[in-house]
Specification:
Number of domains of chain B: 5
Strand order of the largest sheet of chain A: 3-2-4-5-1-6-7-8
Strand content of chain B: 25-35%
Structural class of chain B: alpha+beta
Oligomer: heterodimer
Number of strands of chain B: 38
Strand content of chain A: 15-25%
CATH class of the largest domain in chain B: Alpha Beta
Helix content of chain B: 25-40%
Number of helices of chain B: 17
Radius of gyration of chain A: 17 Å
Largest sheet of chain A: 8 strands, mixed
Order of helices and strands of chain A: HHEHEHHEHEHEEEE
Shape of chain B: elongated
Radius of gyration of chain B: 30 Å
CATH class of chain A: Alpha Beta
Structural class of chain A: alpha/beta
Helix content of chain A: 25-40%
Chain lengths: ~230, ~700
């Protein structure tokens, strides 16, 4: 597991965690928000990969996207990391990492939150998949309600999970309020513990902590996404 | 496109078992006037449906192997390829799908989209096959074709559009309303052979009008001319046909027909649909692999004047010898033409050329591009490509997966032994994933294949077709061994006790070769081992790799680097160096951290989402890894990677857990490391077996 520990130690995710008071934590909900195409999925996949390298199982919940497309994301992130670490046994590390990941795909329309949570719980209990975190990508907050997100949060608390969502911001004009929180998420803030927004700059992507539970938010992080690989550096 | 292949159709009829596929095929043959009487599938007259020529299929009422039958309809030549309904016979399914250009998806008006419908539809999708749907059994209690159309949309994601509405359902099912011509069609005569065209009954006029509007709406996006005409209310039948064909060929539309094959209703309009909407051979793009160019893809032309390229997709034992079904992709086949089997390089002359109708045949002298015919007297394996001399094209990839399960068989009666041998010879030719050999130690006949069911079917076929009763052992997983680390060797083989001595010394290393089988590198400098003995060294290593020490299964993933050695002027020989190589390997193998590999299968379970949890549990209990689960409303699919050794009997478990509502498919994925507890168990079993064998 030396390669894995090495990665975990050097991971830029550590920096992110320091700026949000030791990471997300069990029973809590984190949200990454930005307009389409800025790099939310890439960030989520890196957060997940970081967990996987620490031998912590992750369930990747995806709405609307195809499963093979998500697997490709993981493969790309893994290749970048393996390249950077110059590991000698990428295949073995890869297999170790993959067995800790499950992808669950749902259609948001026509699937109630209860059904999604029921399936997640079945995976954890009946499938004996001891998930540490859940990644939720492609969830459409405009089709959701604060009550739905509250159910996710209750679920996270009951099963001891941390859950990261991505939120896609759409529309013309300003997408954010004065505090920097996305307008789309205003009604959901009660159930969101950590909120980070992504902003496309000319040569990189900036990450900004907008909400950090009851702490004052850290604002811009000393981290950015490489626009080519969309990896956090 | 030549005028000839524009009037040609190569179609498959795909369905969930029990949707009435065989009955439908039978009716199609009948109406095309090729047969004179309709037989029922489980024939009361003991004859059985014409397409089902295998006894086994006759008894089960299902169709397992593919055969091609030619019929004529409305000036078109239609080759019907009988596609296997079962999902496990991968090679059979893939080959059948390979040669057809369009398909009729048969659904039961009561059962609707069933699990196997989903599977066959997915296969058709994978091969980009345009489809039309036929909702059968409209005479059954509970028939609801509109609901089935909705399921096509919701469960299969088809843009399914009703081409007809039923005139009466269940026992009052009398015919259909054609929404293009806006006429009622009834099927008269003793066997429905007379199509009577009438005005639409008053009580259906409103529904017919509404459904027709739906149809025009849905298809006008495929034709600007139709769209314009629709806006000006001057839609013609031809404009509609043209747009429907366009949408269907682009796989963006599924025209839905209906009726009851059993009650002889709705078949003729379906045949009209086949020739109107499904593609001819030239409408479909086909590619071959150029084996001289590292398998680069080459586009083929459906043109009689191009050099010949044909695929042998099915072999059959006929009363006159081996019959080889071929699809001609490019050029022609004619009597006396010289063609080359691009796999074996063997040149052959086309002898007898026939067009098949289930059990009868018609001799022909020539067949053009796009056609499906059969050849006599040609020795080849299924999947071989025949091409004009000078072409190095292959229609199928050369890669054939290694079998993962084996089974010992023995003829119950000594008299049956010849028949068993004959059957095995036939099956191994037909199916490259099925193999057989005699184990040199136990002298048992071992058959190998891609899964339990795969082998079961061949055992059944031996009984039915060859009257050979066999006893079978327990299915056995094909394990492998490999090494975990580099290890050096230095071994001298020396025997000098009277007579000619033996001497050979080899020095080098074994290295892991992940994903590979065997590699031999000769690094010997300065003739320390004379060049003539190097092949013997390689041979020695290869021989010893055939049987690993842990389990007796072959050792793979080993690179042997031979760097040094020594020889003796008189006592060195091929034999001595072979022995030295084997000795070297045996001496150091354990130090190379060997471990056992097992076949890991890609398993896909489909069923109602309420059972998803149970499915997760079964995968977990089987040492499986769940890769993904996809839930779409009430339906769920779970994809997992599970060791084959844990999958025996899974069908039964799954059936009882889900009340038969879930189904699974599996195929070989890769070899993976056996966990240590299991590895110890396997090693102990092998030692025990060796002790037994030694006694």
């Amino acid at each position: 597991m030396t390669v894995q520990t090495e990665f975990a130690r050097r991971s830029p995710i550590r920096t992110m965690e320091r700026h949000i008071h030791d990471g997300l934590g069990k029973g809590q909900i984190g949200v990454l928000a930005s307009p389409k195409g800025v790099g939310k999925t890439a960030c989520l996949v890196q957060i997940a990969t970081d967990k996987l390298f620490q031998d912590k199982p992750v369930i990747h919940v995806s709405y609307a996207s195809r499963v093979d497309y998500i697997i490709t994301w993981y493969e790309d992130v893994f290749r970048e990391i393996a390249g950077a670490l110059r590991t000698e046994a990428p295949l073995e590390v890869h297999d170790d990492v993959v067995k800790n990941r499950v992808i669950m795909n749902f259609k948001q329309e026509g699937t109630r939150t209860e059904q999604v949570l029921k399936s997640l719980e079945a995976m954890i209990t009946m499938g004996r998949f001891a998930a540490d975190s859940v990644i939720v990508d492609g969830y459409d907050f405009s089709l959701s309600s604060p009550a739905d997100l509250a159910k996710f949060r209750e679920f996270a608390g009951r099963l001891g999970l941390e859950i990261w969502f991505s939120a896609s911001l759409r529309g013309e004009g300003s997408l954010y309020d004065a505090s920097g929180a996305p307008l789309l998420l205003q009604d959901f803030l009660a159930s969101i513990d950590v909120l980070i927004t992504l902003h496309a700059e000319p040569d990189h992507v900036r990450l900004r902590v907008v909400k950090d539970r009851n702490h004052p938010a850290a604002g811009d992080l000393p981290l950015k996404l490489d626009p080519k690989t969309l990896l956090i550096a | 496109m030549t005028a000839k292949n524009a009037t040609m159709r190569n179609i498959g009829i795909s369905a969930h078992i029990d949707s009435g596929k065989t009955t439908l095929t039978e009716r199609i043959l009948f109406y095309c006037k090729k047969i004179h009487r309709i037989h029922e599938v489980k024939g009361k007259d003991g004859v059985g449906a014409t397409m089902d020529h295998m006894e086994l299929e006759r008894e089960r009422g299902i169709t397992i192997t593919s055969a091609a039958t030619n019929v004529g309809w409305a000036g078109h030549s239609i080759n019907i390829i009988d596609t296997p309904g079962h999902v496990d016979f991968t090679i059979e399914v893939e080959r059948a799908l390979r040669v057809l250009d369009g398909a009729v998806l048969v659904l039961c008006s009561v059962g609707g989209v069933q699990s196997q419908t989903i599977t066959v539809d997915r296969q058709l999708k994978r091969y980009d096959v345009p489809r039309i749907a036929f909702i059968n059994k409209c005479d059954r209690v509970g028939a609801n074709p509109v609901k089935v159309r909705d399921q096509l949309v919701e469960k299969l994601g088809h843009n399914a559009v009703l081409m007809q509405i039923p005139i009466g359902l269940e026992d009052r099912h009398a015919g259909v309303v054609d929404l293009v011509a806006m006429k009622a069609l009834y099927f008269d005569g003793a066997e429905g052979e007379v199509v009577r065209v009438e005005d639409i009954p008053d009580e259906l006029a409103a529904e017919a009008k509404a459904r027709r509007d739906e149809l025009v709406d849905a298809v006008s996006m495929f034709s600007d001319r139709l769209l314009e005409a629709a806006l000006e209310s001057r839609v013609t039948d031809d404009l509609l046909h043209e747009a429907i064909r366009k949408g269907t060929l682009a796989r963006k539309l599924t025209p839905v027909f209906m009726g009851s094959a059993y009650k002889n209703k709705g078949i003729q309009p379906l045949l009209d649909g086949v020739v109107r909407y499904l593609p001819g051979p030239a409408d479909v793009a086909n590619e071959a692999h150029d084996t001289a160019q590292d398998g680069a893809k080459v586009a083929l032309r459906t043109d009689d004047d191009a050099p010949t390229v044909a695929l042998a997709f099915k072999l059959e034992d006929g009363p006159y010898g081996q019959l080889t079904y071929v699809r001609i992709y490019q050029g022609v086949l004619e009597k006396g033409l010289e063609i080359v089997n691009t796999r074996s390089g063997q040149k052959v002359k086309v002898g007898r050329l026939v067009r098949m109708h289930a059990d009868s045949m018609e001799d022909i002298v020539r067949a053009g591009a796009g056609d499906i015919v059969a050849l006599f007297g040609i020795d080849c394996a299924s999947g071989d490509t025949f091409a004009a001399p000078g072409l190095s094209l292959a229609m199928t990839s050369i890669y054939v997966p290694e079998p993962v399960v084996s089974l010992a068989i023995a003829a119950v009666d000594k008299k049956d032994q010849d028949r068993v041998a004959k059957a095995l010879n036939r099956f191994t030719k037909e199916d490259p994933t099925f193999r057989s050999h005699v184990d040199p130690e136990s002298h048992e006949t071992i058959i190998q294949g891609m899964g339990e069911l795969h082998l079961d079917v061949y055992v059944e076929r031996m009984k039915r077709e060859y009257k050979a009763e066999v006893r079978t052992g327990m299915p056995q997983v094909a394990y492998r061994e490999t090494i975990g680390q580099r290890v050096a060797f230095d071994y001298t083989h020396k025997k000098q006790t009277g007579g000619a001595g033996q001497y050979g010394r080899v020095i080098g290393a074994l290295e892991p070769l992940p994903g590979g089988a065997f590699e031999f590198v000769n690094d010997v400098k300065g003739g320390r081992i004379p060049r003539e003995f190097i092949p013997a060294c390689q041979k020695g290593f290869q021989a010893v790799l055939r049987k690993g020490e842990l389990t007796g299964f072959p050792v793979v993933g080993v690179k042997v680097v031979l760097s040094d050695g020594a020889y003796h002027e008189v006592d060195s020989s091929d034999m001595a160096f072979q022995a030295a190589a084997q000795g070297a390997f045996r001496e150091v193998y354990r130090k190379a951290k060997p471990y056992i590999l097992e076949p890991i299968m890609k398993v896909s379970v489909e069923g109602p989402s309420e059972f998803a949890g149970n499915v997760f549990a079964t995968i977990n209990q089987r040492r499986g890894i769940i890769v993904s689960s996809v839930e779409d409303g009430l339906f769920a699919r779970v994809d997992a990677e599970v060791p084959l050794s844990e999958m025996f009997g899974y069908a039964t478990t799954l059936r009882s857990l889900t009340q038969g509502k879930a189904e699974f498919t599996m195929e070989f994925l890769k070899y993976g490391r056996v966990p240590s507890a299991k590895a110890e168990e396997l090693a102990a079993e092998y030692q025990e077996k060796r002790r037994r064998d030694a006694k």
